[in-house]
Design brief:
CATH superfamily of the domain at 2-142 and 152-166: NAD(P)-binding Rossmann-like Domain
Strand content: 15-25%
Distance between the termini: 35 Å
Largest sheet: 8 strands, mixed
Helix content: 25-40%
Oligomer: single chain
Number of strands: 10
Number of helices: 9
Strand order of the largest sheet: 3-2-1-4-5-8-9-10
CATH class of the domain at 2-142 and 152-166: Alpha Beta
Structural class: alpha/beta
Radius of gyration: 17 Å
Amino acid sequence: MRIGVIGAGRIGGNIAERWSAAGHEVVLSFSRSPERLAEQAASMGTRAVSPAEAAAFGEVVLLSVPWPALDAALEQAGSLAGRLVVDTTNPFGPDGLVTFADGRTAAQTNAARLVGARYAKAFNTLTSAFQRAVGADPERVLAMFYASDDDGAAAMTHELVATCGFVPTRLPWSRVALLEAPRRDGAVYGEEYRPQDAARIAEAATTDPSAAARLAVELRRAD
């Protein structure tokens, strides 16, 4: 796949490295340090470009910027219509967790603003260091939850998550709040799960949200 990365920091940069190593065509964009971005791109054998160029290049766009930078990143990228946008962002601003008056989740908010894009939420539940460590250790088999209301986008996201060394586990779009910050009982954000346990949570989430919330607490790994 051709992938434009908007935000190649700790999470986005690690994902980009994994995808590039797996043979995907990846370009990097959006950094406070153009010099560092250029060095990072060179180390991967690829290019540092503008967000607009990354958006034009990719059939997939990885959106992985701090929440306060999201407006600027999207403005510079321009239209993402027709692209699969894999969104790793969490709504933490300068004053802490951002809430939404209309009752939407952060994922629902971003999906609505990305007019015409095919949207998926992924890679936001675990820290960058944890993701890097798991991806580098083939003996460590853990789940990565994701959500999308588009079956085609979900299939592509499934493949891209697997490339990073996780077992992809899709949650229903109606339960995307389970993926969202903050860490709390009943949600999968900030927790790690074995693949078989994650599958139980996802299955329950389709029919019985209270059971899914209970399992999210009971099955999380403590070690």
